[in-house]
## 1
Amino acid sequence: MANEICSSYWLGEKDVLNLGEHFVELLAAAGGLGVCPAAKSEGRHKDVWMIIGSSLNRETLDRLLGKFERVVVWGAGNGCGIPMAANLTQEPYASRVVVRAVRGPLTVAHSRLPASTVQGDPGFLMPRFYPPKRAVPPGEGETLYVPHWSNRKDAEHKRQVLGCSAWMDVMMPRDAVGAAMQRLVDADFVLTNSLHCWIFCAAYGVPHAFALPDGEQWNMPLKWADVWQWLGQVNMPVPMSKLSEAREWWDGEGRWIQTPDLAPLLRCGPLVSA
């Protein structure tokens, strides 16, 4: 267990994970650590980590504190807003929830944390440990539509409406995530409403934009606002409905968005080695 952490992530004990959940295991592996999903701990771990995800709220914390001595937070966020927020300055959270970092300024405010709290989603650290190696010449890659897992219905039709050449599923087994990451790196453009696909593209410099075709739901807008504000953006991203307008947004605005210094996030997370 010395080289293993226990982490709470949505489908951790399953064979098929959401894209962002794979980042938990990949970042841990980069630091020489294995990951035991919380559902499989069976009392072997005192601490449980919250890394990738939007469930830093009372319901989740109360459930985890019923099974573990401590919850350690490194980059998780509250995507549900104030009604579900846990005041981390009050018990039982103050003494049993260790905050290394949270996703962004909204989570800081809603959780009553000090403004000095380290912020950032660990997904932005992926290129440090899995450097991009584009295999397709620029201009010859796919234009991809990557929907949130809950928006996958009629994805083929929606990618045609958007004007993309193909669509990619964010739900995949562990042996498929490497190919999926390479596909994103090789893409000429990505339209997505999956937050961690968006984060991946932003981190790797892949041209991308937020898209929400007709009939789709914007899953947890507050989790996007958390990241968006951390990036120094005042207004929420405007959903694109066509690849052509998305390219215009990228050329005029998206490509200039800068990621804050990730060194503080890296230093406070023992999952990865500097």
## 2
Amino acid sequence: MNFKKLIVAASIVLAGCASSSHKPVAVNSPPPPPAAPVASALPAPPPAPVAPPAAPVDPLLVSGDTWSFRVPDENWEVASKDDLPGEDCVALSQNMTLKARLMLMSDAFPSDTATFNTFVLKGVTSDGGKLIKSAKVTINGTEWAWADTSMALRKGLIVRVQIWNTVHDGNGFTLMCGGPTTSATANPAVVAACKQIAGTLQLK
């Protein structure tokens, strides 16, 4: 007799002993009819769906409706919208350790990138700035006109600024990034940081 049959036989004997004290039930007597199944409790309601975890917020990402870029580290302080210098300035950040600042500007411009680039650089040179070199670059699928410029603010103080210009969906975008230097050579750390930021530019 296997374990399952032993349990069944013991249940029959115990049931017979409990039903009558005058006439014992033979072990080989037919089993009583199975008891009616007891209604089980109502099934528990399914668990409430768990919302997926929110995507982590990138503290270094600076973005607007149609643009975004990423600063290298938390030393780059990003200005609030209330502290922006004008309507055309959509982002402003500075790094006091590097003594560097960047500004992203955007405004409607009904022409192409080449024309917009000429327009921006003319404004720089008309104020005494110098164009050192320029080139066309592609950043995340968008063509930009890049320029390295300098401007003497006062004797012994020169500001070196890199400029990226493009036109996207009828809007001109200009990213200016740089800082002061006391020599004709730009600060390599500032140049590297500015190029790193520009490399993350995305236009939607």
